[in-house]
Amino acid sequence: QVQLVETGGGVVQVGGALRLSCAASGSISSGNTMGWYRQAPGKQREVVARMRSVASTYYADSVKGRFTISRDNAKNTVYLQMSSLKPEDTAIYYCHYRGMNLNSNEYWGQGTQVTVSS
Questions:
Q1: Which is nearest to 98 in space by CA: 24, 39, 44?
Q2: Which label site among 23, 64, 79, 82 has the fewest CB atoms less than 10 Å from its CB?
Q3: Contact (CB, 8 A) for 81 and 17
Q4: Which residues lie closer than 8 Å to 76 by C-beta, 6 or more apart?
Q5: How open is the CA angle 66-102-41, to the nearest 5 degrees?
């Protein structure tokens, strides 16, 4: 079992910045992938960014150049630095964890609200 706790959400003006953190605990395995998904009202949950290593990182087209994902393996923590925020970034942001194997279980955090006011 893996537990994920997100922090850092809040309300920010258009063009502002926020930094989300997700701390993982439990049965953490090497080679895992951690990332961020978001879900806006009435929309499907979508991937924002995910990272197994610096060389294996993915960003949604909508956030490229604005968001940066990073991780500190010593702290079992993944971060999402968000800048140049837009109203369409408003959503609940969820931390996500998946083990190295294709059939490994996935785990989700409780979510943290990000609201970008116009």
A1: 24
A2: 64
A3: yes
A4: 23, 24, 25, 28
A5: 45
Host H or E run for residue 61: none
Looking at this protein, which amino acid is placed at residue 5?
V
Q: What is the pLDDT of residues 43-87, one digit of tens each?
A: 999 999 999 999 999 999 999 999 999 999 899 999 999 999 999
Please enumerate in sequence order all residues whose Cβ is within 8 A of that of 1, keeping only pairs 6 or more positions apart, or say none.
Answer: 26, 27, 107
User: Amino acid letter at 48?
Assistant: V
Q: What is the DSSP string of 9-34?
A: -EEEETT--EEEEEEEEES--TT-EE
